[in-house]
Amino acid sequence: MSAFAASSPMPTRASSSKSPLRAFAPFEGVGDEVYADAHARLVQWRKDLGSSASFDAQQDVRELSHEKEHLKDLKSDLVGVQSLVGVAVQLQVGGTKLAEVVRSSTEAATTRAQSVARVRDELDRVRDSHSQELQQEERTVSRQMEMADAQHADSLKLLGVYKERLGLEITRVAPQIVRMAFSLMDNSDPSRVFFFTLGLADCEDKASEGYCVRECTPPVPELQKLVEELNADTSSTAALPRFVCLIRRCFIKMAGGKEVA
Does residue 33 contact residue 41 with C-beta atoms inside 8 Å? Predict the structure, then answer.
């Protein structure tokens, strides 16, 4: 039963009961017994009417109480529905925020992917460029090695000529130190050896870098001056050969011989 039914007026069942006096029409000559019986019926009718009215009232009260309970249930359901509506609204708002977060994350991931792609393309380009440069360097080194081998072969031939005509012999006695020996200088003793050891100054814990002569036999008076001139002109590729030639001339002068062209 709805709340609207609870507010409608209740019909009184006792109102349909008719008074027993209506069955007796007034007329003359009616005896006392008849009136006594009518009175008894009237009393009984009033009792029945009161009982019926009381029953109907109790029934209406019970129905009204039931409607109140039903109304409470409806109110409770309404509160629950309102709570569900609030939760639904929050879920909708949360869903909107989540969708925005997902969209932002997707855009950020797309941007990162594009950045990674650009970096990858740049790395590929740099790798290809370096690969080409490396191949070019390898070709250059290969050509330089070929040239160096050719120069080394020419140098060996030249040293062979020097050894045969000038008695020059170059040997390595220590790291960055060589021994240069000359023979065929003393006419009285062609096998006599004149030599000096040439190395770098820093390999002997000297303060300054440059060439140094640790041993010279026989001693050359001009040796210190010649070494200083050599170190003052280290940028020239002809400085070292000129130094060797000057030392040889000093050896020839000391031997009393003459220089062989």
Answer: no
